[in-house]
Amino acid sequence: MNWEQIEGKWEQAKGKVKEKWGKLTDDDITQINGKRDQLAGRIRERYGYTKERAEEEMKAWENDVRW
């Protein structure tokens, strides 16, 4: 699934994001509002990941997410 599809279905994606990255708060997810760069930044902040690691995780998640 590409990010445009995820962004378009953000209300449904919120739960999947929370399952994958449990350290993200509900406020984080609300503020992200489907924006990929915002999600990457919050993942880096909450998990202490490098930009590259956050991107790798997000790409893997995008490829694996199923509705």
UniProtKB/TrEMBL annotation:
InterPro entries: CsbD (IPR008462), UPF0337_stress_rsp (IPR050423), YjbJ (IPR026042), YjbJ_sf (IPR036629). It holds the Pfam family CsbD. Gene3D superfamilies: YjbJ. Belongs to the UPF0337 (CsbD) family. This is CsbD-like domain-containing protein. Residues 4-55 form the CsbD-like domain. It comes from the Bacteria.
